[in-house]
Each structure stands twice: as C-alpha cells, then as structure tokens.
Design brief:
This protein is α/β, with parallel strands linked by helices. It contains 11 helices and 10 strands. 39% of the residues lie in helices and 16% in strands. The protein has an 8-stranded parallel barrel, surrounded by 8 helices. It has a two-stranded antiparallel ribbon with strand order 8-9. The two termini are 18 Å apart.
C-alpha cells in the first residue's frame, strides 16, 4: 500500500496508557513504552508522524519544569516524533474542577488550561510541536447537569469563554471533546448549543472522536436526540452512514481536532472513567463503523472537498486492554487504517 497524500500528519494518542488504568484496573503503561510502540510501527515505509499527549502523571506532569520538557522533547526527537494536541487535566481528580461548579472549582479548571497552554508554548519553542490544540471537556457528569440543564450549560459556556481568552493569550486553541459522559456535551444537539453559546469559533471548537460521536446517533444519555431507531439493525450500514452524516454536518463547522477510532456500539467504563463509547481495534469484527467512509463525514465538506480543518489526525485507542496495546501488530493495524483514511480524505 502506498500513501497518496502527505497531509494531514498521522498521530497516535498516548493517554490509552493511562485512562481507565490504576489500582482498580490494569497498571498504567509508561510513556516511554507507548512512544517506543508508536515509533516502531511501519507500513510500507510509512510511520507515525507524532503523538498526542496527556498532561498528567505518570506520563507528563502538568507542573513540568523546563528540564522536564526538554527531556520529553529529546525523547520525541530521538524517535522522530512530533507532539500535537495536548490534553489538559481539567478534572477534579487531576487537579482541575468542574466547569459548571462553584467559583473555586471553575478556577481550578482554568488554572489547568493555563498550565497546559504554557506547556504547549514551551514544546513549540523546543521545536517538537508545530500544530495541535489543547483538549478540554466539561469535567462534569450528565447526571449533575440534568438537575439544571439550561443554567449549567450557561455556566459551562462561561467557563469555556474564560478558558478561550486564556488560550488566545498563548496562541493556542481549545477543542472540547464531545462524549456521552461529559455534561452538556453528551448529545450532538447539546454540543452545538454549547459551542454557539460560547461564541468563539476558531478559538474554542469541537474535538470529534469517531467512536464517541457514533454513540450520539444512538441517543445514549440523550434519547431525545437519537438519530437511529431503537433496536437498530446494524446490517443496515447505509442508514448508520446517513445518521452519522447528519450528526457530523452539525458539528463539523466547529471541529478543529479529530480522532480516528472504531466502536462496537456498546459502552464501557474502567477504573475511574465513567461509561463511554467502547473503542475497539480497527479490524475488530464487531466494529460498527466503516472507518474510512465515516472519517469522510468529518474530513470532507458538503461539496465533498477536504476541509483541511486540522493539520493532523490522531488514533484513539482509549481503554484498550494492556495486552492489546503491548502487541506490535495492534499499532501496525492502526497505522494501516490511518494511512487509508489519509489516502481517501487527505491533501498535499
């Protein structure tokens, strides 16, 4: 297989080594190991261009010193990898706080955004980060949000606007990840409402994950916004594609960061992570998405032209079992499908 396009760059996410791991689950996989597995993957001479990073220990400390970041930059350079988007640890358990919480909680949320933006700038200065955004979410649950949907959405929007102002001062952009487990972001309609309320297009946008957004079409945590009928027959792939396009068309104008992923139509929670769309490997026979086809719903506009809305795309294997992540074949298969996505929807 040969790649026909050079852009967007192809990245692998590092946080699957951390998210859902811990004392009540599997042990975390250290960053060096995740970097080595990524750097070793190769398909017909093509490799991953870089990685997206999670700014939380035991990977990258949100309070990293210059020396810490120089060490990280050296590790990336030695493996011929760039850094792209950075996940800000905005949740209560990682030093942040709810974006719809009290003044103290929202202050902690904004503090983590500021620290992540500072790290982003330092990695640019070190020459290992040329593109990417700071990823956030609402750091609150739909169960809390539903107690006052309109009031809580307004509060999240206020916090996001303040975060956007912080990011702008550092030359950064924020991408809020829509996912069924995040308050005010658990539905495609609610995501659009929130982003319109924030009102900072191009500065505070949407981070689309193929697996998580597929759950939107099924109405998980928001049955009023489902696009597929109950007891949907997955053999009717064309109906899924149509529903997926409706959802993506509404959110695509806001999308500034993109995760390629596969989903089997179920939800999963692990460790401290709430239930969300279950990621599965690209060749999983239970996968419901046609990855290459459905990536086009995000990467092409209504005239079927590449949007060029992001400089890189990233694979997200969140909550993959450790045995799967430690298998080099996993990353070969991931890289292979990422290159197919780029061939189909990329540019030069």
């Amino acid at each position: 297989m040969s790649t026909h396009h050079k852009l967007p760059a192809v990245h692998n996410a590092m946080w699957p080594g951390l998210v859902g791991k811990g004392p009540d689950s599997e042990p975390p996989i250290e960053l060096d190991t995740m970097l080595d597995l990524t750097a070793a993957a190769e398909v017909d001479g093509a490799r991953f261009d870089g990685v997206d990073l999670f700014l939380s220990l035991p990977h990258t400390d949100i309070n990293s010193t210059h020396d810490d970041l120089k060490n990280l930059a050296d590790k990336l350079t030695a493996r011929k990898l760039l850094a792209g988007s950075l996940v800000a640890p905005v949740w209560g358990g990682t030093g942040g706080g709810s974006s719809m919480g009290n003044a103290e909680e929202r202050g902690l949320f904004l503090q983590q955004v500021r620290k992540a933006c500072e790290i982003g700038g330092k990695l640019r200065a070190l020459g290992v980060r040329k593109y990417g955004v700071i990823r956030i979410d609402s750091a609150a649950s739909p169960a809390e949000w539903i107690k006052d949907p309109e009031g809580n959405t307004k509060l999240i929007a206020k916090t996001f606007r303040e975060a956007g102002t912080i990011a702008s001062g550092f030359g950064e952009r924020l991408a809020a990840e829509g996912e069924i487990c995040w308050a005010g972001m658990h539905s495609w309609r609610r995501n659009v409402q929130l982003l319109e309320m924030v009102g900072m297009p191009g500065l505070v946008g949407f981070q689309a994950d193929m697996a998580h957004t597929m759950l939107f079409t099924m109405g998980y945590n928001a049955p009023e916004d489902r696009l597929l009928p109950e007891n949907f027959d997955w053999a009717q792939g064309h109906l899924l594609a149509d529903a997926y396009k409706v959802m993506a068309r509404a959110l695509r104008p806001w999308t500034i960061d993109f995760h390629v992923a596969q989903n089997d139509g179920t939800v999963k929670g692990e460790g401290s992570h709430d239930k969300t769309g279950r990621h599965c490997p690209p060749k999983d026979p239970n996968g419901k998405l046609d990855i290459v086809r459905d990536a086009g719903a995000w990467m092409r506009d209504d005239d079927d032209k590449p949007t060029r809305a992001f400089a890189h795309i990233c694979w997200d294997g969140c909550m993959f079992p450790n045995a799967m992540m430690m298998d080099p074949q996993t990353w070969h298969d991931v890289l292979e499908v990422m290159l197919k996505v780029r061939d189909a929807h990329g540019w030069d």
